[in-house]
C-alpha cells in the first residue's frame, strides 16, 4: 500500500472541511469525483419522442398551402417587341417617330409575369380594349431552363 503524502492528506482534510460546512448549511455534499476511468463511460442516448406528422393532424395539406399564395399580386405584361438603339437615336425621337422592333407583324406576343416569360398569344380587341388570347403556354421545364 502506498503511503499518503502531505499533499494528499491536506486535500482530504480540505474536502472533509467543505463537506462539514455544507452539511451545516443543509446542502447535500456531492460525492467526490470518481477516477477518470469511470467518468469515461459514454452517456446513454435515446431517440427523441416525436410524433409522426400526418396531413390530418393539423399539418397543411397541399391545397391549403396553395391557398396561402392565391392573393399575392403579380404583374402580367404583354411585350410587343424589343430593339436596341443608341442614346443619340433615343434623344432624336419625337412625336411621329417610328421605332423598328424585332418582331414581325402577326407574330405572337410574349406574356410575362413579373418579367418572366410564361406564354405567347395574339392581340384581340375586347369591348374597345386590347386583350391577348393565349396560344402557347411555356412548360415549367422550359421556364426553369430560361431562368438558368
Which descriptors apply to this entry?
single chain, 148 residues, alpha+beta, four-stranded antiparallel β-sheet, 5 helices, 4 strands
How are the SSEs placed, and which strands pair?
Layout: H1 6-25, H2 36-39, H3 62-69, E1 76-79, H4 87-91, E2 109-113, E3 116-126, E4 129-137, H5 140-147
Antiparallel strand pairs: 1-2, 2-3, 3-4
The major β-sheet equals: 4 strands, antiparallel
The ordered string of helix (H) and strand (E) elements is: HHHEHEEEH
Instruction: List low-confidence stretches.
Output: none
Side-by-side strand order of the widest sheet: 1-2-3-4
Mean of all residue-level pLDDT scores: 79
Assess the beta-strand content as a share of residues. Answer: 15-25%
| Overall body shape | elongated
**Rounded radius of gyration (Å):** 40 Å
Helical proportion, percent range: 25-40%
How many distinct beta strands? Answer: 4
Structural class: alpha+beta
Distance between the termini: 78 Å
What is the number of helices?
Answer: 5
How would you describe the overall organization of this protein?
The chain has helices spanning 6-25, 36-39, 62-69, 87-91, 140-147; strands spanning 76-79, 109-113, 116-126, 129-137. It is an alpha+beta fold and 148 residues long. A 4-stranded antiparallel sheet has the order 1-2-3-4, with no helix packed on it. Strand 2 (109-113) and strand 3 form a beta hairpin. The model has no long low-confidence stretch (mean pLDDT 79).
Amino acid at each position: 500500500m502506498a503511503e499518503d503524502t502531505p499533499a494528499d492528506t491536506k486535500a482530504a482534510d480540505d474536502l472533509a472541511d467543505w463537506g462539514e460546512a455544507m452539511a451545516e448549511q443543509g446542502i447535500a455534499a456531492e460525492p467526490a469525483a470518481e477516477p477518470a476511468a469511470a467518468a469515461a463511460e459514454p452517456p446513454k442516448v435515446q431517440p427523441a419522442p416525436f410524433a409522426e406528422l400526418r396531413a390530418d393532424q393539423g399539418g397543411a395539406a397541399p391545397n391549403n398551402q396553395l391557398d396561402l399564395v392565391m392573393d399575392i399580386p403579380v404583374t402580367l405584361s404583354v411585350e410587343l417587341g424589343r430593339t436596341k438603339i443608341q442614346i443619340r437615336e433615343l434623344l432624336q425621337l419625337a412625336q411621329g417617330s417610328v421605332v423598328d422592333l424585332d418582331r414581325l407583324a402577326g407574330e405572337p406576343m410574349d406574356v410575362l409575369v413579373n418579367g418572366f416569360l410564361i406564354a405567347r398569344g395574339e392581340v384581340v380587341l375586347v369591348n374597345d380594349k386590347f386583350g391577348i388570347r393565349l396560344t402557347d403556354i411555356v412548360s415549367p421545364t422550359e421556364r426553369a431552363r430560361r431562368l438558368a
